[in-house]
Amino acid sequence: MSAERRARAREALALDDAALLERCERSFFVASGPGGQHRNKTASGVRLTHPPTELSVSATERRSQSQNQSVALSRLREGLQALTVVPKKRKPTRPTKGSERRRLEDKKRHAQKKAQRRGDW
After folding, report:
1. Is 18 inside a domain boundary?
2. Is 53 exposed, middle or buried (0-12, 13-18, 19+ CB in 10 A)?
3. What per-residue confidence (pLDDT) applies to 19?
4. How large is the average pLDDT for residues 30-36?
5. Cβ neighbours around 88 below 10 Å, total
6. What is the full DSSP assignment across 54-119?
7. How many domains, in total, are found in the chain?
8. pLDDT digits (tens, 9 = 90+) for 99-117
9. Predicted local confidence at residue 118, as pLDDT
């Protein structure tokens, strides 16, 4: 992920809900599923797209468009928060000589035990 996208996510998180909604593209769609005729006939599903970060979320759980919009907004904030996290740099590590020696000794001991069971000796 680019540092520029991370910075845009931080800027968006600093905004209040109304300002964040203004910067998002909203689309409404017919959400299928349980909820009866009201849900199946009205465009109660909400999709929010935040163009600067290219993050898109949708909510279809409720029968109400406004309730779905608030759920989608909270999901958008969660997604933006996830974008701001900087992953720790991974350092390549190697096992110590002592641990490598102990592991090989254990493997040898285990192999001898199994060989005795087979009677290969």
Report:
1. yes
2. buried
3. 93
4. 74
5. 6
6. TEEEEE-SSS-HHHHHHHHHHHHHHHHHHHHPPPPPPPP----HHHHHHHHHHHHHHHHHHHHHHT
7. 1
8. 999 999 999 999 999 998 8
9. 85
